[in-house]
Amino acid sequence: MAPAHRDPRIPAPASGKPWRNAALVGACLVLAALPVLLGASNYLLGLLISALILSGIALAWALLGNLGGMVSFGHAAFFGVGAYASALISARLGVPVLLAIPLAGLCAALSALAMLPTLRLSGPYFALAILAYAQIFRILATEATGLTGGGAGLQRFPGLPTILGLDLGSRTGSYGLLVAMVALSALAYEAIRRSHVGTALRAIAHSEDATRVVGVNSVLLKAWMLLLSAFMTGVFGALNAHIIGFLEPAYAFSGLWSVMPIIAAIFGGYRTVLGPIGGAIVIYLFDQLVAKDLIAVGHQILLGLVLVVMVLIAPNGLLGLLKRRAGGRPHADA
Amino acid sequence: MLRKAVAATAMTLALVGGALVASLPARAEEVLVGAHMPLTGSLGRSGQAFEAGMRTAIKIFNDASPRTKIRLQVIDDESTPAAAVSAVEKLVSEKAVAVIGGYGSNIIGPASDAASKLGTVYITAGAVSDELTARGLKTFFRINNNAGYQRGMAGLVESVKPAAVSIIASTKEAPILLARGLEKDLSAKGIRVTVHAFDPAITDFKPLINKVKLQDRSEILIMSAYENDYVGIIRAAKVLKPPLKLVLGAWSLATPKMYQEFPDLMNNVVGTSFLPFPVEMKDQEGRRFAEVFKQLYNKDIEYLATLSFVETTILAEAIGRAAEAGTLSTGGLAEEMRRTDRKTLIGPVRFDATGDNPLFSLSMGQHQDGKVVLVAPPAAATGSLAYPALPW
């Protein structure tokens, strides 16, 4: 009997080869350490930092999309709330930056509570509702002049500190911190994916009605995914704020923070853990190092073309394509 | 024997060659100056105008400088802070001795921070926030500031003694700062001021103009915004016809380009300006700028190009002095920048300890039938203000 064609949303069995996963993690860590070991310039490290920030948001977006089954066009809201919260908590309350960052993540998660009613919606209705929320937060940041500085923005807030002699504000320090944060986020994502909760969530994504029939509280699980995704995005927003050193509503809540992670996650393969990370790094570096060199003004055209080709030849993303080339399964792990 | 002859010939050739090389004029030293500008997106037009002014200044400097030649490399920062910071880091890694900044304090802030960390001089004419100079960076310089725009506009408004003024201001950083500053200045003079802030995404200004018409009943409408907003505001005012006596704006308004593109909206509108149009250059530097600009771009000089011409000229001159003194590679450029004290096309420029130019002040120009007439301050005026006078 021919094997049944597996739906990508159906839970994948846990890998039976732990050594293979360990080797993959080791290879990723070596890859992450390479730029520092090879003495990469500040310029290259700066690009990698931006790519890692994008990776973090892409991962958070994919977590909501893959496990929660919700397509969000409003992650800019969590990113902006996290950025402003961390800047304000550290500048106004004098809280150390490394503590302000997770607190900012919590603030982003709290802001997501306002979006809980949208969990009753699905598909394009949810996407549109969350997009509207992002706009509301941007307007609030503009109007709350006393708190956020309004359109004039915030500039004087602390940067990343020096810990145990390592200046996290330096390019090398920021890069190391971001690698660690992206790795932590990926581990959290993987842990949830492998847990019973992950199995239930993937089942919800496949058929929410059927899952409810067997007693799974789908709304509660989706709400947790929304809060976790918001927390992760808020943390990366906070990190970006302390690295860039300037905030204004148009930047912190820019639509780019909603759109680019989607592109990155789909490019890399949003049903995998490593796909969004790889996708963000590849598309950002391709855009800045290759496309910008070839077409200095309007290089985004090249990026757009690459994305179109990629979606046409590999709908499961870069990771799916690599697996297919390596003779692996036709679909990436859900 | 043959070997000796070959050796003697080689030595002779080497000596003659060496003498010839020594007698040639010393090769000019090429210095890289970097710049990041928004060359695409909504601010692309502004970035391109800045670039034109920079390239004109570099050409004039290179033509006049036998020893130091400057090569300019401009990177599109796409109006995003991360891209601007990357541009600065890339330019410095390619040995740029200085970076000319882009447009907007949100971009200039992080980019100049990055330049400061790399010990590289950074100059801008595109950011007016006071926060930038409050940081006390030793390598940061700018030629214009909010106070200069405020002085120019407030001076003109006070001269016509209105009872009430309405300010329509974009919530973006520079416009809202200017609006708040004007509100404070004019209120202190006993003028009733109402500020209407609007989101930059707004394109229909009729509701705001209705407030000006029905609630404020002001004599003067001040627009603190950007080109597209000016057009939208004046268009809405032309439809609703509030009982105004003058329409006044900030940057990039009193330019020939605006009149050429929107002749039905611009007549009698007033904006900040450095030069009248048709351009009347009173000094040698201005005439040379206009001539080379025309030669390179086949058009008349404009507002933003003038600003970037001035900042680039000041930087190029400081580079020339530092190169002459042999301190260019040892941090002498920032010192040479601080020694700047000269008259320019936008007035005197001198940097204080924070890198700001406290002498910055602007004239006000009025569109009068295709010409831009300088109407204030009296010392710079080339004509008189048409008042009351409206575009409709």
TrEMBL record, chain A:
The keyword Lipid biosynthesis is annotated on this UniProt entry: no
Transmembrane segments: 21-38, 44-64, 71-91, 97-116, 123-141, 174-192, 224-244, 250-270, 277-295, 301-322
Record organism: Methylobacterium soli
Keyword Transmembrane: yes
UniProt superkingdom: Bacteria
Membrane topology recorded in Swiss-Prot or TrEMBL: Multi-pass membrane protein
GO cellular component, one term: plasma membrane
Primary site of residence: membrane
InterPro entries linked: ABC_transp_permease, LivM-like
The protein's name in its UniProt record: Branched-chain amino acid ABC transporter permease
GO MF annotation, one: branched-chain amino acid transmembrane transporter activity
Keywords of the record: Cell membrane, Membrane, Transmembrane, Transmembrane helix
Compartment list: Cell membrane
From TrEMBL, chain B:
GO-annotated biological processes: amino acid transport
Gene3D superfamilies reported for this sequence: 3.40.50.2300
Signal peptide: 1-28
Keywords: Amino-acid transport, Signal, Transport
Domain Leucine-binding protein: 32-357
Family that this chain belongs to: Belongs to the leucine-binding protein family.
Protein name: Amino acid ABC transporter substrate-binding protein
